Amino acid sequence: MDPTLTSAIRQKVSDLMDASSEFESSNSDDLINQIERGCTCFGMFSNAILLPMILYRSPSDIGVYKFLMMYIAVFELFFGWLELMTVPQLFTQGSAFIVTIDPDNAVLPDSALQISILIYCGSFATSLAIFGVQFAYRYQVLQGNTTWTAYSLANFTFWGGIPLFVAMLWTLSCWIFLGRNEYVDMVMRQDYFPSNLENKTIGFVGIYFYPKLENGMSVINWNSFIGMALCTCILFGSETLMVYFAVRSYLITKTLMASTCSPNFRKLQWQLFYALVFQTVIPILFMQIPLSVLYLTLFLNISTPFFGNLQATTISFYLATDALPTIFIIKPYRETIFGKKSERTRE
After folding, report:
1. Cβ-count burial of 33 within 10 angstroms (0-12 exposed, 13-18 middle, 19+ buried)?
2. What parts of the sequence cross the membrane (predicted)?
3. Cα separations (Å) of 278 from 41, 123, 129, 324?
4. The model's pTM
5. pLDDT averaged over consecutive 10-residue blocks of the chain (347 residues)?
6. Domains (ranges, CATH) in the chain?
């Protein structure tokens, strides 16, 4: 057979295989995006149901704690809305981790994309901190510390402001250290990075630990290391406080079983505790653990697109499921969902 013809056939077969691979990848990405959007919508629906139940169906013994619960529900509604409006894409390869907003997918105007992606990163941080704050508040309630738990604007500002302060620190670290620079631009010029973002105004946050220069030499991108060090401190700091106050709250709640408090009050405290535990396990499972694994793969320079897709998907799983423990564990809310009416106004 003519060598030229053979070479042409091989090239044609190769092109067909590449096209098939791109088509399968595109279909896979579309499916993942649909799953993510569906999970986000379901989570917003769950919180939209939970919010009026917290307001109107909460036991009277729950006190001002219900406002913290409402705070979380409103935050998760906002986080879900932001996810739908921006459709962020997470890309990982080697030591590079890039979060982008494609203007063709986003509903928001191009001028708002960069600030939107910074708010998105800050919302991620808020979701890590908010349950540590909730456990800390529960601990003060169980301790009977009315100075920190009384219904007042100062207390609400303090407890509600801590997650926002954490979000501000996370957002500032992303803005200062993880913006576009010559190193992350190298990643965007590589063949494995999505080419449809070229020459567009995009929202962007990026990490590239070990950029490879044109001469083949690898260097250390200290901006990425500093930015990720700050984010990692926030991540593990929130986990530490969460575990500490969770254990302390459990020990105090356990002592209530032998106290003179009413059975309804003791039962409510256990329901609140278990609801908070399950509600906290969800972000640990779907956000903190995947993010920790992703950080490790980046540091070892072995990350693949799988880890970016995993993190994007698990964020949607978090939004879809986090309201469910509160709905199904706290009895008045559960009875409202299943059409049963409590015989008592206090649980």
Report:
1. middle
2. 68-91, 111-137, 158-178, 225-247, 272-298, 310-330
3. 21, 20, 15, 9
4. 0.82
5. 52 45 51 85 94 88 82 93 90 89 86 91 88 86 83 87 92 90 76 64 85 83 91 85 86 72 73 80 86 91 90 90 89 84 44
6. 27-337 (1.20.1070.10)
